[in-house]
Amino acid sequence: MNDAIYQRIENNPRYQELVKKREYFAWCLSLIMLVLYVGFILLIAFAPGWLGTPIAPGYTITRGIPIGVGLIVISFILTGIYVIRANGQFDSLNSQVLKEAEQ
User: Fold this and answer.
1) Using CA atoms, how far apart are residues 52 and 75, in angstroms rounded to an integer?
2) Which of 18, 60, 75, 85 could form a disulfide with 93 if both were Cys (CB 3.0 to 4.6 A apart)?
3) Rounded distance between C-alpha atoms, residue 15 and residue 9, angstroms
4) Shortest CA distance to 18 belongs to which of 78, 101, 99, 92?
5) Which of the residues in the chain have pLDDT under 70?
6) Vertex 81, ends 76 and 83: CA angle to 5°?
7) How high is the pLDDT of residue 2?
């Protein structure tokens, strides 16, 4: 591709919309993950006894294990949410921008 096509893409309002939506969505998901992870670290730092308590009397599994596993599962879920949106809305906008730039 040449510079003129790049310039048309960059000046396209749909491209600007794509960049803003993708950036906002990525920051939101990142913020959610950051809050959850920092919360978990703060629990480890300030409530290790609570995390080390068994989930029920007679069990050897502590509260920290399902919370840690849940954190990992949530990260996969958030990644899946991003992929679904990227393959739907973001790819659609991207295709429209490319079609308009080629004209």
Assistant:
1) 23
2) 18
3) 6
4) 92
5) 1
6) 95
7) 79
